[in-house]
Amino acid sequence: MTDSRVHPATADTLTPPPPSSSSAKDFGEHPVPPNPPPSKPVPPPATYVVQIPREQILRYPPPENARRFQALTRRGKRGGGGGCRRCCCCTLCLLVFLVVAAAISAGVLYLVFRFKAPKYAVTKLAIKGMNLTSAAPISPEFDVTIRAENPNGKVGIYYLKGSAVNVFYNDVKLSNGVLPAFYQPKKNVTVLQTAVTGSGVILGSAVEASLINGQNQGRIPFVVKTKVPVKIKVGSVNTWEITVKVKCDVVVDALSEKAKIISNDCDYSVKPW
């Protein structure tokens, strides 16, 4: 005989199963997402100290300051050379400017006033005190006569103080003197006489022998060098001070007061400042 028993349903058996996804779709409902697990707190980032040697630290300037950085770096390596070079450049520019200004002034004088170069010549050279028979030092004296010609029709020349006249033989300075200060007007010829003297001049044996030989042959060459500051007058305007140097190669026939000039060749140069 069969045992028929009815067991009561427990709570687990009475709990309906969770709806499946297909069932939710069938009823038009969205599935409920499960709650995420609680997040753990993030610890703050750790701080680290890294020590690097100073010589290994590289620093780069921003792009806008790259040129300045390079310039400062070069200046630091060169030290004070940059300032010296800038000074030299300024001096060179000033010299170039002065040369250009002098050239322009000379061009204006020549083109506008047709400036002609003055002419100089030594016309007489009287010699005293050239005793070659004694070994003692000599004290020669030269009376020099210089002819200065100003061929310009619109230009006058001021010969200023501070001139110098020297007589040489074989690069041995025998005597020195000065020229008088004067004004030479246009189209004028002025003859200047000056005495140039020397004291305690010692002649070497070679120089003395050369002088004796030249006296025996009647040809003794001397060099007369003149340096004089001048100012040029154009109308009512005077130029700045200009230095004129004149070199004359003079050959005489004797070492006496009555010496005659055999040949005379003069050349001059101008220093514009």
UniProtKB/TrEMBL annotation:
Give the main location.
Answer: membrane
Gene3D superfamilies reported in the protein's UniProt record: 2.60.40.1820
Name the UniProt key words of this record, in alphabetical order: Membrane, Transmembrane, Transmembrane helix
Give the GO terms filed under biological process for this record: defense response to other organism
Q: Where is the composition biased (Pro residues)?
A: 31-46
InterPro entries per the UniProt record, alphabetical: LEA_2, NDR1-like
| Any one GO CC term of the record | plasma membrane
Q: Which residues cross the membrane?
A: 94-113
* Residue ranges constituting the Late embryogenesis abundant protein LEA-2 subgroup domain according to the UniProt record: 145-248
Segments carrying the region annotation (Disordered) are 1-46
Q: Where in the cell is it found?
A: Membrane
Topology relative to the membrane:
Single-pass membrane protein
The molecule here is called: Late embryogenesis abundant protein LEA-2 subgroup domain-containing protein
Organism this protein belongs to: Perilla frutescens var. hirtella
Q: What is the lineage of its organism?
A: Eukaryota, Viridiplantae, Streptophyta, Embryophyta, Tracheophyta
